[in-house]
Design brief:
about 425 residues; Rossmann fold; seven-stranded mixed sheet; 12 strands
Length: about 425
């Protein structure tokens, strides 16, 4: 399970990262003021009739950080710890992320403060439909396009798409991405984030002259992104020696059988107790002597109190904001090569863009077409970030933020202010 502590405020972290990159770019004060803060913040109350008949009220949010480069884009998460500041931070990062991979979207994010693990399918559906109705004025295929995030999935998106379409009187599949294939979803979307993580790790290994075959890997968080990245790394000949989820951590110095571990996770819902492995603590996983560490859980899991213990050569941020600024500085000083989240995990939003394009064109691609296009986008973005990293002699995170923020700043300067 992820290491926990009193977390840094995610939005403060997002603003600190912005200011560092904006100052490195030499952005003037006026431009910074125009692109730094969210354009729209919606807070809503979501009343839901529970299975036992009583009404329960949930707090929910939708934040649009930017629509300067195109419609807002971002996931919806269901989690007990969802806060407005977290959603604002995630929307901000989405803006820079879309710009880093150069797709014509801005950033958005949504969330409901709830515990989906203790809700029935019927309760989740009623909550989702009520939430969709509440954010209806903000969303649309040319306006704001939600997607799955923590504890939401293709079924959640199907409910949102149906609710939105019923209010319009005809089906509008482009209102969300991450949908089931039968409702206009894209092949390759489910594994897109993990596949993007894999492509950027490939690039980092090449950049550092570190052979991927035989490299040792630890994966913190074995959800969608972490498990797919682990599978692809395993197939490429890397040795995944440790994996964790919310139930515990498993370790085998000779490498875990990732296909069998994924099968167990699907059947049992956890990795704890996996055969031919030993249990270790979350702190031990972070401190393993390995080549690549993949934090794929929640934000702020690597912080000032545990970053010094990290011994990996590469940290690939499959999660959003897994390193605090203090942890970032510690790892930089240790010479760790960090693939920042807005680059590393941008595969999800990239294939979301592909899905939206397919929906708008009513023409769908083969899976291999999706993979090929994704690989080109991710590897081009990596090269663009590394170029700034090398030429400007700045850390990878600052380089990625400079690339994304610079593209948004250029767009807002060209558009100006209306009226």
């Amino acid at each position: 399970m992820p290491t926990t502590r009193v977390a840094d405020n995610a939005y403060d972290v997002a603003l600190e990262n912005f200011e560092t990159a904006a100052n490195a770019l030499g952005l003037d004060h006026d431009t910074q003021e125009m692109i730094k803060y969210p354009e729209r913040v919606l807070m809503v109350t979501v009343p839901v009739r529970m299975d036992d008949g009583h009404i329960r009220r949930f707090e929910a949010y939708r934040v649009q950080h930017s629509q300067v480069r195109g419609p807002a884009k971002g996931g919806i998460r269901y989690h007990p710890q969802v806060t407005l500041d977290e959603v604002k931070a995630l929307a901000t990062w989405m803006t820079w992320k879309c710009a880093v991979v150069n797709i014509p979207f801005g950033g958005a994010k949504g969330g409901i403060t709830c515990d989906p693990k203790h809700m029935s399918q019927g309760e989740l559906e009623r909550m989702t439909r009520r939430y969709t109705s509440a954010i209806l004025p903000l969303i649309g295929p040319q306006q704001d396009i939600p997607a799955p995030d923590v504890y939401t999935n293709s079924q959640t998106m199907a409910w949102i798409m149906d609710t939105y379409s019923m209010t319009k009187g005809y089906p509008i599949p482009g209102v969300v991405t991450g949908k089931p294939i039968s409702l206009g979803g894209s092949l390759g979307r489910n594994e897109a984030t993990g596949r993007g993580v894999f492509y950027t790790i490939e690039c980092a290994c090449e950049h550092l002259h570190l052979p991927l075959k035989g490299a040792t890997v630890a994966v913190q968080g074995f959800g969608n992104a972490g498990s797919i990245a682990a599978q692809l790394l395993h197939e490429a000949g890397a040795k995944v020696i440790a994996v964790s989820d919310s139930t515990g951590c498993v370790y085998n110095k000779n490498g875990l059988n990732i296909p069998e571990l994924m099968h167990m996770k699907v059947l049992c819902g956890h990795v704890e107790g996996f055969p031919e492995s030993e249990a270790i603590s979350p702190a031990q996983l972070l401190a393993l002597d390995c080549d690549i560490l993949v934090p794929a859980a929640l934000e702020n899991t690597v912080h000032a109190d545990n970053a010094e213990a990290v011994r990996a050569k590469i940290v690939a941020e499959a999660a959003n904001g897994p390193l605090t600024p203090a942890a970032d500085r510690i790892l930089q000083n240790k010479g760790v090569f960090i693939i920042p989240d807005i680059l590393c995990n941008a595969g999800g939003v990239t294939v979301s863009y592909f899905e939206w394009v397919q929906d708008e064109q009513h023409l769908f691609w083969e899976a291999q077409d999706v993979y090929n296009r994704l690989e080109r986008v991710m590897k081009t973005a990596f090269r663009d970030v590394v170029k700034i990293h090398v030429e400007r002699k700045v850390p990878m995170r600052i380089a990625a933020n400079m690339l994304g923020i610079g593209r948004v700043a250029e767009a807002v300067q060209l558009r100006g202010i209306y009226p």
